[in-house]
Amino acid sequence: MDDDAGAAGPIRRAEPVMGTVVSFDVRPGRTPAREIYLALAEARDRLHRADAVFSTWKPNSPMSRLRRGEIRLPDAPPEMAEVLARCRTAKEMSGGWFDPWAMPGGVDPTGLVKGWAAEQALDALVQVGVEAAMVSAAGDIVVYGEPVPGRPWRIGIQAPWDRAGLIGVVDIRAAIATSGTYERGPHVLDPHTGQPASETLSATVLGPRLDLADALATALVAGGSAALSDIERVDGYEALMIRADGSRAATGGFTLTA
Predict the structure, then answer these.
(1) I want to staple 128 with a disulfide (CB 3.0 to 4.6 A). Which of 39, 67, 109, 148 is the partner?
(2) Is 245 inside any structural domain?
C-alpha cells in the first residue's frame, strides 16, 4: 500500500499495558496509512506513560512515591494534578461514593485513570483526522465518529454470570465503562466503611467522558442503590446496575436493546 494513500479498511491492534490488553479499532477514512500507524504508536506510548506514572504496583512510579510521601504533587509529573482534579470532580458527582482519598495506603486514582488513559490514546488518533475509532480497555470503551455512516458504535454488555452471554446492547457515541465483582470478587471498597462492597455484581455507566464514566461505575459498585440515586442526578450520565441476586436497576435514560 502507498504510505500516502488512505487505508482500505479498519485497522485493528492490541497492546498489553496497565495489567490488561487495550484494543484499537480505527476507521481511517481519507487519513494516510502512514499517519495512522504513527498515531497508533503515539497512542500506545500514552498508555505506557500513564502506566509508568500512575501504577500503584510499581514501587518507583510517581504515584507510589506520592502515596509514601516521598514527593509532593507540585514535584510530580503534570498529568498527576490533572487526574487528581478529575478525581475530585468524580467524587463530587458521585456523592462521595468514588473517593480515591479513602483508600488504604493513600490516594489511589485507579478507578478513574484507566478511562483517562484510554481517552488520551483516542485523542492521538483523532488528531490525525481518522473518520472513526474505538479504544477498549477491559470494560472501559471510548469512541469517536461512526463506524458506518449514520450508525453509532454498538457495544454488548456482558452477563456477569455468563462470560459468553450478553444482557443486551447499547448504542454509544462517546464512552461506556463497566465495573463489577463478578470476575475478581468483592474488591471495591465502600469508602464510608472501608469494607468490600457486595450489593452490585455489575455496574455500567454511559456518558460523554470515559474517565468520569469509569469513576462513576466504580462508585456504583461501591455504593449500590444509594450511588445509583446520586448518579441519577448527574447530567449526561446514565447507569445500569445488576445486583448480586440478579435483579436490575437503572437511571431513567439508560436504554438497553436485545
Answers:
(1) 39
(2) yes
Q: CA 62, 66, 68, 69 torsion: positive or negative?
A: positive
**Measured CA angle at 174 (ends 95, 89), to 5 deg:** 25
With cell 453509532, the residue in question is: 152
The answer to pTM > 0.85 is yes
SS (H, E, C) 135-172: EEECCEEEEECCCECCECEEEEEEECCEEEEEEEEEEE
Q: How many domains does the chain have?
A: 1
Helix (H) or strand (E) holding 112: helix 110-126
Q: Is residue 19 a part of any domain in this protein? A: yes
Per-residue pLDDT reduced to its tens digit, 88-118: 999 999 999 999 999 999 999 999 999 999 9
Let me know if residue 257 belongs to a domain: no
Cα–Cα distance, 205 to 210 (Å, whole number): 9
Q: What is the CATH number of the domain that holds 193?
A: 3.10.520.10
Better-predicted residue by pLDDT, 213 or 183: 213
- Domain membership of residue 79 (yes or no) is yes
Residue 224's closest CA among 192, 246, 202? 202
